[in-house]
Amino acid sequence: MTDMSALPPTGLVNYVRRDAAQPLPPPANMTGWQGWVRENLLSGPFNIAMTIISAFLLYWIFAPLLNFTIFHAVWTGADREACLITEARPVVGACWPFITERLQYFIYGSYPLDERWRPTIFFALLLVSVAWVLWLNAPRRDIGMLFAFVFTPAVSYWLLTGGNPAFALVGVLALAIDAAGAVFGTVGSILSAIPFIGWILALPFNAVDRALNLIANGGIGGLREALGRGFFWFDLLISAAALAAYVFRNRIRYTEADFRTALTTILGVAVAFGLFVGVTGLDAGLKPVPTNLWGGVLISLIVAFVGIVFSLPCGILLALGRRSKMPAVKLFSVILIEFVRGVPFITVLFMASNMLPLFVPEQYAPDKLLRALIAAAIFASAYMAEVVRAGLQALPKGQYEGAMAMGLGYWQMMRLIILPQALKVTIPNIVNTYIGLFKDTTLVVVVGLFDFLKTIEAARIDPKWAAPTTSATGYMFAAIFYFICCYAMSRYAKATEERLGKADKR
Amino acid sequence: MTDAIRTPAFEAKPKVSPLYDPKVRSLVFQAVLCLVIAFLLYQAYANAVENLRRAKIASGLGFWDNIAGFPISQSLIYYSEASSSYGRAFWVGLLNTLLVASIGIVLATILGFIVGIARLSRNFLVAKIAYWYVEIVRNLPLLLQLLFWYNAVIKALPEVRDSISFPGGIYLNNRGFIFPTPNFGEAFWLVTVTFWAGVLGALFYRAYARKKQEATGIQSPVGLTAFGLIVGLPLAVFLLAGMPLSFQFPQAGRFNITGGVSLLPEFLALLFGLVIYTAAFIAEAVRAGILAVSKGQTEAAYALGLTPKNTLNLVVIPQAMRVIIPPLTSHYLNLTKNSSLAVFVGYPDLVNIFTGTVLNQTGQAIEVVAITMLVYLTISLTTSLIMNWYNARKALVER
Question: Are B147 and A51 a contacting pair at CB < 8 A?
Answer without folding.
Answer: no
